[in-house]
Amino acid sequence: MVSATTKMLGRDLWRLRGQVIAAALVVACGIAVLVGMQGAWHSLAIAQERYYAGHRFADVFANVKRAPSGVADQIRALPGVKGVDARIVRDVTGDVPGFSEPATLRLVSLPATGVPVANALFLVYGNYPNPARESEVVASAAFAGANGLEVGSRITAVMNGRERQLEVVGIGMSPEFVYEVGQGMVFPDNRRFGVLWMGRDAIASAFGMEGAFNDVALRLDAGADARQVIGPLDRMLARYGSLGAYGRQDQLSHRFLTDELAEIGITATYVPAMFFAVSAFLLYALLSRLVTVQRAEIGLLKAFGYASHTVAFQYLRFALVTVGVGIAAGIPAGLYLGQLLVALYRQYFHFPQLQAEFSPRALVLAVLASTVAATIGAGASAWRASSLPPAEAMRPELPAGFRAGVLDRIGLLRAMPIPLRLIVRNLARRPGKATLSMIGIALAVGLMVVGRFGLDGVNQILALQFGRAQHDDVTLIFTDTQPAAAVFDVVQLPGILRAEGFRITSVWLRHGHRSKRVELTGLDANAQLREVVGHTMGRRQVSADGLVVSARLAATLHLQVGDRVEVALLEGRRKVFTLPVAAIVDDLLGLGAFVERLALSRHLGESPAISGVHLRIDTRMAEPLYKRLKHLPAIGSVIVRSAVLASIGNTLDRTFVISSLVLAGFASIIVAGVVYNNIRIALSERGNELASMRVLGFSMGEVATILIGEQALLTAAALPLGIGVGYGLCALLVPVFDRDAFRIPLVLERITIVFAMVPAVCSALVAGLLVLRRLQHLDLVAVLKTRE
Questions:
Q1: Across the strands, what pairs with 217?
Q2: Please, which pLDDT band fits residue 676 given cuts at 50, 70 and 90?
Q3: pLDDT above 60: residue 765
Q4: Each residue of 393-411: pLDDT tens digit?
Q5: Which one of 1, 14, 205, 718 is most buried, by most CB atoms within 10 A?
Q6: How many CB atoms lie within 10 A of CB 70?
Q7: C-alpha torsion angle, residues 227, 228, 229, 233 (rounded to 10)
Q8: Residue 217 has pLDDT above 70, yes or no
Q9: How many other CB atoms are there within 10 angstroms of residue 384's CB atom?
Q10: Which parts of the sequence belong to the ABC3 transporter permease C-terminal domain (predicted)?
């Protein structure tokens, strides 16, 4: 038999179904974000763990110029080393069918027999290269997919000065290239950069590396400390031109993946928290009004012997049922959102199997968080209902006290039209409720600001890097260091308007007990095509007598202008010297350290040399230039400015635009829920007043203005507050995006402010129109009846 309280609960839920649905939708959005993002995090983490373990991802990496194969046996003898893969890795230019620009191909050797000890290849389809056929390669799945390569496709590569026709015999993946980017890249460009695995003998014969290697990957024993292995390994490889060993945490692909996992985890915490906070407010407002309306019913329940805790639980059940509806809708939506996010991540992170995994932890967390929010929202109302004495509850509530406010005393209200006067006076009488309503709307607006913040930051990076710092059209990176006179040879290529050489070398920078391995870049003092420019600090001139360092690097090493830094070269004679910090620049990409190019060559003990050339070209001659570059033996990589920008633009369209629209949709539900709930409560509370006004001759438009205008004022006031809330949230998120590879600056563009405000205003209008229909059908006689 259904109890009386259960029947009462059912009637209340049905009568207030619109407000219940509004609150439930907000809860559903929070649960969807929590389940979806936690599910995406869980899916990536599981795929990473399985892939790394199943395909023996290396723990330590090192590069050398050339080391005898016998050194690999010495490395295996180091304590803690489980396995060693001594291999050959080279970057070359290639000609991909149907693609005019030169592609950068990273050639990685495969052992003649067996499979690699570390970073085992996963063959998607096809075969491994036949050791007896030097032209066979396995292409990375991302590169093959972007360029339409299949088994049997051919690629032309310039290997050690000679063109080689390479035949694709398989499509594969490696845990070393989950995030497949080339030198100096932040966003992947699979059209122009790809990995090719080929037989060791084929690479060795092409580059004269028989009996030698230039790259080594180590797997360590369980529990071994990579730092205890890196020291002896560096000392062993120093004589062979090692640029310094590094652990898995500094491996490019792994670092991008772990950074992304950290960002997902943080986002999956703060965004659902905002939704649950708003849902708690909605339930508080709804149940506060319900308790006020049902004072007589509460008195009767207590008079008939119902205990106080039973009465309190009645209203707590109302909140739990509302949350239950949100849970029922939010979990399927969250699972679908998780699938969308995983599909999005598949475009950037390449695993043999990346499926949307269901996270039981996320489900439990979502149920607990929403239940806690419901309890908080309903707690005050439930306590008030349970503490009402029966005799007092059965009497009508005393009218609220009135006293003249500041606006009344200064006469400002008298100057206002009557509808506006009523609106302002009602808001002034209940400042707490008005404040909570504004906070709810402001949180939604702030959420939409956060949704586009990343896009604004990346646009700022592009504007700084490609608008103020880089003025070149093409960058050439040589396979080996070349004499500075090579610039004059490059100038002879078709379409070259200006060429500037640069020198890059790996160094350890030390200040006190802190140290960091970075790339030290040597630029010409009068360089025009590549400048050192900060986000807010402007241009910095490179110096022969000091270092210009990025603000991120300065913070890492605790550097200030004038501090002396120890520079340990990892090339040539490995000279160690000190230089003062000449300037600090707040650039947004990498850990930059810059010095004058000729001074860097002097420290290296070499004649003036360059690692590459920045070019400004006549775009009308781009095709002939690209054709020549594909066949030049000394060039290992070609970076085309326009192609990089196009690739980044495509990446942004696929990621930030989608995420922004999803967050905008969820945030619009918050605004609609808050406004609809407030107007419905106002209609319930002030039905007698509004009906009396209609009887006294006020038009429907005037009455609607009084009812909806209150929420319009709150929404208008909440918009700038929401922008401020969003800005504050973005400021909290800036450290999350503070990576070594790039930093997202705290910048909000005008379009972001518009993007945040327009959906909020539209949602408020829709909610107002829904309630306006009820106002038009208001039964004046029924409303004006007095309760006895």
A1: 61, 85
A2: confident
A3: yes
A4: 556 665 555 555 555 555 5
A5: 718
A6: 10
A7: 90
A8: yes
A9: 16
A10: 272-390, 662-776
pTM of the model: 0.82
Quote the distance between the C-alpha of residue 773 and its chain's center: 42
- Amino acid type, 37: M
Read off the tokens for 723: 């922008």
Place of tokens 């966003």: 187
Question: How many CB atoms within 10 Å of residue 463?
Answer: 14
DSSP codes, 15-33: HTHHHHHHHHHHHHHHHHH
Q: How far, in whole angstroms, is CA 783 from its chain's centroid? A: 53
User: What is the average per-residue pLDDT within 206-215?
Assistant: 92
What the block records as the tokens of 474 is 């093409």
Whole-angstrom Cα distance, residue 679 to residue 715? Answer: 12
In the three-class reduction of DSSP (H, G, I as helix; E, B as strand; rest coil), residue 498 is classed as: strand
DSSP three-state, residue 704: helix
Q: Are 38 and 365 in contact (CB under 8 A)?
A: yes
Q: Where are the alpha helices (DSSP H) in 632-699?
A: 641-685, 687-695
Inform me whether the pLDDT recorded for 116 exceeds 70. yes
CA-to-CA distance for 178 and 247, rounded, in angstroms?
Answer: 16
pLDDT, residue 408, reads 58
Q: What value does the mean pLDDT take over residues 155-160?
A: 88
What is the full DSSP assignment across 17-83?
Answer: HHHHHHHHHHHHHHHHHHHHHHHHHHHHHHHHHHHHHHTT--SEEEEEEEEETTHHHHHHTSTTEEE
Three-class DSSP category at 539: strand
- Per-state percent for the chain, helix, strand, coil, to nearest 5: 55, 20, 25
Residues 573-587 have a mean pLDDT of: 89
The C-alpha angle 284, 290, 294, rounded to 5 degrees, equals 145
Q: How many residues are given for the chain? A: 788
From the list 93, 108, 114, the residue with the least C-alpha distance to 157 is 93
Using alpha carbons, select from 100, 104, 180 the residue that is nearest to residue 475: 104
Tell me whether residue 531 is exposed, middle or buried, using C-beta atoms within 10 angstroms of its C-beta: 0 to 12, 13 to 18, 19 or more. middle
The whole-number pLDDT of residue 510 equals 93
Rounded to whole angstroms, the Cα distance separating 361 from 364 reads 5
Helices (H), 243-294: 252-293
Q: What own/partner pairs with CB < 8 Å and gap ≥ 24 does 257-261 have?
A: 257/44, 257/48, 257/178, 257/179, 257/349, 259/739, 259/741, 260/44, 260/345, 260/349, 261/41, 261/44, 261/45, 261/48
CB 230 within 8 A of CB 237: no
The segment with the largest mean pLDDT, out of 42-56, 637-651, 694-708, 753-767, is 42-56
User: Greater confidence, 776 or 501?
Assistant: 501
**Residue 596 is encoded by which pair of tokens?**
């004058």
Q: Which helix (H) or strand (E) holds 584?
A: strand 576-585
Q: What is the mean pLDDT of residues 276-290?
A: 80
Comparing 772 with 273, which gets the higher pLDDT? 273
Choose between 101 and 557: higher pLDDT. Answer: 557
**Angle between helix 687-695 and 700-733 (nearest 10):** 140
In terms of average pLDDT, the best of 166-170, 635-639, 714-718 is 166-170
Geometric angle at alpha carbon 280, from 278 and 281, rounded to 5°: 65
Contact 49/372 with Cβ under 8 angstroms?
Answer: no
Return the SS3 of 610: strand
**102 phi/psi in degrees, rounded to 5:** -70, 135
Most confident of 82-91, 571-580, 585-594, 752-761: 82-91
Distance, CA of 242 to CA of 64 (rounded, Å): 4
Quick one: pLDDT at residue 788? 46
pLDDT tens digits, residue range 333-349? 999 999 989 998 998 89
Distance CA 226, CA 215 (A): 17
Angle at 366 between CA 365 and CA 370, to 5 degrees: 115
Q: Residue 634: what residue type?
A: A
CA 616/CA 528 separation, integer angstroms: 10
